[in-house]
Amino acid sequence: MRTLADDLEAPDDVHTRIVVAAYGLFSRRGIRDVGVDELIRASGVAKATFYRHFPSKNHLVLAFLKRRDELWMMGSVVPEARRRAENPEDQLLAIFDVYDEWFQDDDFEACSFVKVLLEMGAAHPLGKASIEYLARIRQQVRILADEAGLADSEAFALSWHILMKGSIIAAAEGDKLAARRARKMAAGLIAVHRPQGSPQGSP
Fold first, then answer.
1. Which residue in 34, 142, 147, 155 has a CA-CA distance of 20 to 30 Å to 136?
2. What is the pLDDT of residues 127-182, one digit of tens each?
3. For residues 137 and 123, is the Cβ–Cβ distance under 8 A?
4. pLDDT by residue (tens digit) across 95-129?
5. Angle at Cα 159 formed by Cα 1 and Cα 30, nearest 5°?
6. pTM for the whole thing?
7. pLDDT at position 2
8. Are 60 and 82 in contact (CB under 8 A)?
């Protein structure tokens, strides 16, 4: 999986430097455990400079979530899944192949959107932002389902997203084979939503 450092080439950009420092801290430890003073120290900027770029910690968390979305799902998982297979059904299944490699990483840190949602709650602005980003992921699944001609793509995407999120939680519990287990269930879900008589993708 790509990291923030892979895509950011501007260490002298103060705004970027703060986001990079926050990205590592928030990804590993969550939101509430990381204080503003620690973020300032990790960024190597003055307090006044920090607040000039981010008026509050919540503003920085929102920037972190946006960058996480750009790098993790929209910038890595979905494009990589599309690259690995030719037809939409196989591209859907390839999401779990990408996940499988991610789960094997020593620095696997689970899904920040889910963690922030659970940590802050659905009513909190950061929880709401996380829900919106999770919906964006689900929309990508629905697009692939529509391309595959699967029936009731909205219901399919909701069920598929359960498998995606569930496999991440299982991996966080220590099951490094969670993505492979989810992939087998996902193949069955595709079969349920595949119109009768339509060609079958690769297993």
1. 34
2. 999 999 999 999 999 999 999 999 999 999 999 999 999 999 999 999 999 999 99
3. no
4. 999 999 999 998 888 889 999 999 999 999 999 99
5. 45
6. 0.84
7. 45
8. no
Angle at the Cα of 7 from the Cα atoms of 135 and 58, rounded to 5 degrees: 50
Cβ pair 182, 100 in contact under 8 A:
no
The Cβ of residue 126 has, within 10 Å, a number of other Cβ atoms equal to 19
SS3 labels along the chain:
CCCHHHHCCCCCCHHHHHHHHHHHHHHHHCCCCCCHHHHHHHHCCCHHHHHHHCCCHHHHHHHHHHHHHHHHHHHHHHHHHHHHCCCHHHHHHHHHHHHHHHHHCCCCCCCHHHHHHHHHCCCCHHHHHHHHHHHHHHHHHHHHHHHHCCCCHHHHHHHHHHHHHHHHHHHHHCCCCHHHHHHHHHHHHHHHHCCCCCCCCCC
Copy the structure tokens of residue 85: 């297979």
Cβ of 103: how many Cβ atoms within 10 Å?
22
User: Which residue type sits at 178?
Assistant: A
